[in-house]
Write a structure and sequence with these properties.
133 residues, mainly alpha
Length: 133
């Protein structure tokens, strides 16, 4: 039991949280087929920082905003995977959408342009579709 407590305490270290979030975010980026520019923009990083951040030995810090963005995007991914079948779940974020949040644009573009508030709005929108809100 002590080991489990030790691990739980260790994982709360910011560097550990960052590493887990970045690894999960990189998987989402790959699953959605986002470009380097899109992935960096969504995470509010420069392209060169994102290139470094997706490597396992990345030691840089994430801002609270960046961590919230990654968390919300991972939540969006999970919602899409639960709500839609595989092909649509993987392409929804990068397809033009006439929904009220997107005005015919692609959710990824509106999320990059609108920053964290728009990313959170997309997450809330999907949770409502699922019946979670």
């Amino acid at each position: 039991m002590e080991d489990a407590m030790y691990v739980a305490e260790k994982i709360r270290e910011p560097a550990q949280i960052n590493a887990v979030a970045l690894k999960a975010y990189a998987r989402v980026v790959d699953a959605w087929g986002l470009s380097l520019k899109e992935a960096a923009g969504l995470a509010d990083m420069s392209e060169s920082t994102w290139k470094r951040a997706k490597k396992p030995d990345f030691a840089g810090e994430l801002t609270k905003d960046q961590l919230l963005r990654l968390s919300a995007v991972i939540g969006i991914f999970k919602s899409l995977e639960l709500y839609f079948s595989e092909p649509l779940a993987r392409s929804w974020f990068t397809r033009p959408n006439t929904g009220p949040l997107f005005g015919g644009g692609r959710p990824v573009d509106t999320a990059i342009d609108g920053g964290l508030p728009q990313i959170l709005a997309v997450r809330t929108y999907l949770d409502a579709l699922r019946g979670g809100a």
